Amino acid sequence: MSLQFATDTNALPLYIIEKDALGDFLNSLPVMQRVWVETSGFTGAAGSVVVLPGEGGAPAGAIVGYGSVATRARGRFHVAAVVTKLPEASWKIATDLPQDDLEEAALGWLLATYRYDRYASQSAPKARLVTPDRIDGARIEAIAAGEALTRDLINTPASDMGPQELEEATQNLANQHGATLAVTRGDDLHAANLPMIHTVGRASDRAPRLLDMSWGDSGPQLVLVGKGVCFDTGGLNLKPGGSMGLMKKDMGGSAATLGLAHMIMALRLKLRLRVLIPAVENSVSANAFRPQDILTSRKGLTVEINNTDAEGRLVLADALTLADEENPDLIISMATLTGAARVAVGPDLVPFYTDSNATAASLAQSADRVRDPLWRMPFHDPYEAMIEPGIADLDNAPKGGFAGSITAALFLRRFVSDDQPYIHFDMYGWQPSAAPARPKGGVGQATRAVLDALPDLLGLE
């Protein structure tokens, strides 16, 4: 699906007006249009719209309600809410918005045109937006395309998005940008010393694999590690049916890393990118790994399995160890890792972990600027004892359930060096109900904030 701006030079004006400024704006209109708006009951509420009549009844423009600062703070992408309400035409923003608001409006418009139509046709909005003045249209289109890739991958059911299909999607992305992809599959994972990836995925007849994509030959090195559990039954600790319903999205971390990778490569950022995706299914069969098994990781740390449904951290651990061996400038892991994160902050906020206050501040500023909400959580060292079972170096599922997102993050941190810059995101990857620019279904999270922060995090020009 192509999410692009229109190039029509005869676009209709789109006025984005705050509620308190509506009266003054209406006084600037011709009498006919002012009376039309007043009698329509339009108040300027955020996300509302009224079309202005022209000669012969044809549209002459439209007013988008921008609400107030207080009401806008309770949501985002308010302009995107009107895309499906406007008649077919090309539109041009005719209001001098602050730069961040203008970029949000432009991106939100493109994202509002996204439709997942692989299995059933869906009508797309017919209103088109001309690239706004002061906007880098190519950058916004690259971000929208990366987000669309993430959504497509998450929305695809596991019947059509197993490890092989995830490999094919990664290969397609590599081909698009001139990147290289190396794949280690099945029993070869043992020879490559990636034992926990093999162990988690061996029960499925769809072979587990590690996808290793590289791009760029100069600049600082960034490694993205994405959880690619294409379906999670819970293994022998089988999930109840209600908890298994959305497990096609358990590869949301890998989908996010691929979407972010597209943005980075399309924008030709001056860095060396590596993407590592352990792609597996956590299935049930006679050779599935068991509770109380003790696994030896690539790093040599032993892990006691106290719940086979805590498998994401196992496959990420081997991939993080591999990433750490190159001493990159930054490692970022993205994963739909814990239900505890959802209990703590809900589906819209993404908890992230870093030991660097400067990194946290940079991410928080970018998250606010690009409307991609994040919330810092602590690598709380006193909880380290909770992931140490005694019989092995680590416990993959500490009893009691306290601080589940934190203990999972602490587990992952054990597989990177103490001085290695590292950020972990514990995302949801799913929009539970439709919102402006975000239809119900798979959604990218944290990627736009990371992209915005990369120049600061890596010292890019």
From TrEMBL:
Residues 307-314 form the Cytosol aminopeptidase domain. It holds the Pfam family Peptidase_M17. One of its GO terms (biological process) is proteolysis. GO terms for cellular component: cytoplasm. InterPro entries: Leucine_aapep/pepB, Macro_dom-like, Peptidase_M17_C, Peptidase_M17_N_1. One of its GO terms (molecular function) is metalloaminopeptidase activity. The keyword tRNA-binding does not apply. Signal peptide: none annotated. Keywords: Aminopeptidase, Hydrolase, Manganese, Protease. Gene3D superfamilies: Leucine Aminopeptidase, subunit E, domain 1 (3.40.220.10), Zn peptidases (3.40.630.10). Belongs to the peptidase M17 family. This is Leucyl aminopeptidase family protein.
